[in-house]
Design brief:
The structure is a single chain. The protein has one domain. The chain has 9 helices and 2 strands, in the order H-H-E-E-H-H-H-H-H-H-H. Strands 1-2 form a two-stranded antiparallel sheet. About 3% of the residues have low confidence.
Length: 254
C-alpha cells in the first residue's frame, strides 16, 4: 500500500508542476486580488503564506475527495471553466489597471525629480544665499507614515479567493485529468494525491515568494497581469473544448 501511495504522490506532484493552478498559486503568492502586491509586515507574512498554502491545497484536494467518495467532479468542468474565465478576467483587468496606475505614478515622479534637479542646478548660478534659499524651498517634506492595515481582511482574502479561483481553474487541468484514469475508490489514492498537491502548492508559494523579493513592483504587476490573461485564455479554450466535446460521439468502455 505504501508503494502505491508513493506513486500517487509522485504522479500528482509532477503533473501539478507547471500546470495552470501551479502558476495561479505563484501569482497569488505575489499578488492579492483585494490588496494588490503582498507587502505585509513580518508578523503577518508567515500566516499569510500559510493560509495561501492551505487554501490552494484544499481546492485541489477537494476534487480528489469527491472522486474517492464516488462523486464525479468532471461532469461540472464546463461550468467550472466558464466560472474560471469570468473570475480570472476580472482579476486580470484589476491587475492591469494597477500596473497602469503604478506606471503613470512612476513616470510622474521621474518628471518631478527631473524638474527639481534642473531648478537646483539653476540656483547654483546665483549667489550662495539665493542657492540656499532655492534648496530650502525645493526640499521635499518627509514621507508620511503609512497606516497599518488590519490583519484579518488580508488573511481572509488570502485563503478564500485563491481557493475558489483554483477550484474552478482546476477543471480539465492535467493534474486533475490523470486521476480520471486511475482506480478511484482507494485510500492510498486520496492520501498520495493530497500530499502531492500540498507539495506542489508549497513549491509554487515558495517560487512566488522568491520572485516577489527579487523583482520590482512594476514588473511584478506586469507579470501578474500577463499570467492571469494567459490562464483566462486557457479557461476560455477549455470551456469551448467542453462545449464541442458534448456533441462528439465518444467511445464507451465495457
Amino acid at each position: 500500500m505504501f508503494g502505491i501511495f508513493f506513486k500517487f504522490f509522485i504522479l500528482t506532484a509532477l503533473a501539478e508542476l507547471g500546470d495552470k493552478t501551479f502558476f495561479l498559486t505563484v501569482v497569488f503568492a505575489i499578488w492579492c486580488p483585494w490588496h494588490g502586491i503582498r507587502d505585509g509586515s513580518k508578523n503577518v507574512a508567515p500566516m499569510e503564506y500559510l493560509l495561501l498554502l492551505v487554501g490552494c491545497s484544499c481546492a485541489l484536494i477537494l476534487r480528489t475527495l469527491l472522486l474517492c467518495t464516488g462523486v464525479d467532479p468532471f461532469q461540472w468542468d464546463g461550468f467550472s471553466a466558464v466560472a474560471a474565465l469570468v473570475v480570472l478576467s476580472l482579476f486580470a483587468i484589476k491587475a492591469s489597471a494597477e500596473w497602469r496606475v503604478l506606471r503613470n505614478e512612476m513616470s510622474r515622479s521621474q518628471d518631478e525629480e527631473a524638474s527639481i534637479q534642473a531648478a537646483g542646478e539653476h540656483q547654483q548660478v546665483g549667489d550662495p544665499e539665493a542657492m540656499n534659499y532655492g534648496t530650502t524651498a525645493l526640499a521635499l517634506p518627509p514621507p508620511d507614515k503609512q497606516e497599518t492595515e488590519p490583519w484579518w481582511p488580508i488573511l481572509c482574502t488570502t485563503a478564500v479567493l485563491p481557493c475558489v479561483t483554483i477550484l474552478f481553474a482546476e477543471a480539465m487541468d492535467r493534474s486533475s485529468g490523470i486521476l480520471q484514469v486511475t482506480e478511484r475508490r482507494r485510500l492510498d489514492l486520496f492520501f498520495g494525491a493530497s500530499f502531492g498537491f500540498v507539495a506542489a502548492s508549497a513549491a509554487a508559494v515558495f517560487c512566488g515568494y522568491v520572485i516577489q523579493n527579487h523583482v520590482s513592483k512594476q514588473w511584478l504587476l506586469f507579470l501578474v497581469a500577463g499570467v492571469l490573461w494567459i490562464i483566462a485564455f486557457c479557461s476560455l479554450r477549455d470551456a469551448l473544448v467542453r462545449l464541442v466535446l458534448g456533441d462528439v460521439p465518444l467511445a464507451h468502455t465495457v
